[in-house]
Amino acid sequence: MRVVVMGAGGYVGSRLVPALLAAGHEVTATFTDATTAGRFWWAGQADVVEMDVRERASVRAATDGASALYYLVHGLGGVDFATSDRQGAYNAAHAAVRAGVERIIYLGGLVPDIADTDLSPHLRSRLEVEEVLTDSGVPTLALRAAMVIGSGSTSFEIMRQMSERMPVQVLPTWMDSQVEPVAVTDVITALVGALTAPLLSRAFDVGSGERMAYAALLRLYADRAGLRRVQVSVPGLPTALVSRLAPILTQAPAATVQTLVESLRHDMICGRQDFMVQLMPRRHVLTPVAEALDRALALPDETVPDSQRDVIGPLTSDVPWAGGQVSRRNGMPVHRGDGWRGLLLGPAPDPGAPAAL
């Protein structure tokens, strides 16, 4: 089957393309700047095209001849990201209809059980994109996920970098809301499975089955990373204040951090788990959250090419600001012990652990 992956250079898209190729599909991978495709090991096996989702003509050209369309484009930052998202979704839907695409597969965010008007701008925009694609009349399968765990994932990297740089974690009481993380490898499996699911427009909640408070997730991360952290719950901290302060502690784009933080005040947990039946292979076992964290923190063997690495772990093609001071090697956390970072991280949890990075 010929499929087009819009957003192939993003975190999920860059890991989805090789999975589709391995499944025997012909893939058109779109990039805003096609010259950047060379950093991905699979670029020579896919049809790489340059496309600006805001330009209808280039979207039509990319979609021509495709049987399925993956829409993995999101604008997390900027003053008018919602308008750009809406325009891109309309262009993709229009192109899919003209090209006779059989199905659209979209990855969005979990939608809390609240009024649409109470959603954060980020979640409201993702839901609007889903609605635009579905209204095209092309059968649309929308996969909804909360935090995707994997090295290079924006939400994971924000958690990693903030955890490393905050020995005392001041947490607003609204962070007691629940989250259901999911490993990127399970998201990829579900996305590939959506190609053969029944042709019926509907949404699937995709998660690990493990629900926990955000504070508990931070504690679990600290445990797997070998960090000693103190959590202090503070009532009354407004979301807007936290979203302005959080970017100081991470190398992720400030607008992206602010947008994601605004979503933390809601429970981000799955409803029905029927994606396991409709999208996943029989007897598929979901990756436990603790295992996903371990694999995301794994120190890679630099002699192993990206094509042979664990997709949950770091790849050389990941964004430059991804990564941190802590990794895991031989089942133990290891970290640098130099300067102020060493003071923040503290000594290694086990003096018999492998040498520091």
TrEMBL record:
Q: Which SUPFAM superfamilies match?
A: NAD(P)-binding Rossmann-fold domains
Q: Name one GO cellular component term.
A: cytoplasm
State the InterPro entries in the record: NAD(P)-bd_dom, NAD(P)-bd_dom_sf, NAD(P)-dependent_oxidoreduct
Describe the location of the NAD(P)-binding domain by residue ranges: 7-161
Alphabetically, the GO molecular function entries are: aldehyde dehydrogenase (NAD+) activity
Q: Matching PANTHER family, A to Z?
A: NAD(P)-BINDING DOMAIN-CONTAINING PROTEIN-RELATED, PROTEIN YEEZ
Q: What is this protein called?
A: NAD-dependent epimerase/dehydratase family protein
